[in-house]
Design brief:
alpha+beta, Helix Hairpins, minor pseudopilin epsh fold, 2 domains, 7 helices, 53% helix, globular
Length: 200
């Protein structure tokens, strides 16, 4: 089975002025596409290894699979997490769970921004649901796959690789993450992801 780049759920300029058309186009058509291609290549190489019985490259291929596979999954969620005229307050059952696990929406936002802004190098800020722990967690993910809690289901992800924001925000990462949370997040999407995760 091979994977393909999913289309954006909105026009390339739909997230202006908070997320510029040039960055969205480059980010989706080049960077995300690169992870899809890398995932397919890793899967093809692993299939060839199984057919030949030669697993000498298993360590490297496992790393490629984790990197590109996580990159594809996180980017797919990232695009769906945003909408034109987004932001505002969480809605539905996710709002209740945020209050339960963080004390308030404001406390959650402060923790999410602090964690996301302090990702070391390239990575993501993630709000995820852990069925095993029975609660929401805010995590940093370095690169795409490092520092994860096993079993976590990502609900809201903010990309802080420099290619995600540098054209518009330059090195002002906190301005990008604040714009993302205040003006771009589709809480309807986050809430539906939470409901889906709870139903599994």
């Amino acid at each position: 089975m091979s994977y393909s780049l999913p289309p954006l759920p909105y026009a390339y300029d739909a997230l202006e002025p908070w997320y510029d058309k040039e960055t969205v186009t480059l980010h989706h058509d080049k960077h995300h596409a690169g992870y899809v291609n890398g995932l397919n290549a890793a899967l093809e190489k692993l299939e060839a290894a199984r057919e030949s019985g030669d697993f000498a490259a298993a360590k490297a291929l496992s790393k490629e699979l984790a990197f590109h596979g996580s990159g594809h999954v996180l980017h797919t969620i990232f695009w769906e997490n945003m909408k034109p005229e987004g932001g505002g307050k969480p809605m539905g059952e996710i709002a209740v769970q945020i209050d339960n696990d963080f004390g308030s929406v404001d406390a959650f936002k402060k923790q999410f921004l602090a964690a996301t802004n302090s990702v070391e190098g390239s990575g993501w800020g993630i709000l995820g649901w852990s069925d095993e722990l029975g609660k929401l967690l805010v995590l940093q993910s370095e690169i795409h796959q490092n520092l994860a809690v096993q079993g976590i289901v990502p609900l809201l992800v903010c990309d802080v690789w420099e290619h995600a924001y540098y054209l518009k925000y330059q090195n002002k990462r906190p301005e990008w993450t604040a714009a993302f949370l205040d003006n771009l997040v589709s809480w309807e999407n986050v809430n539906q992801r939470y409901l889906n995760a709870r139903c599994k």
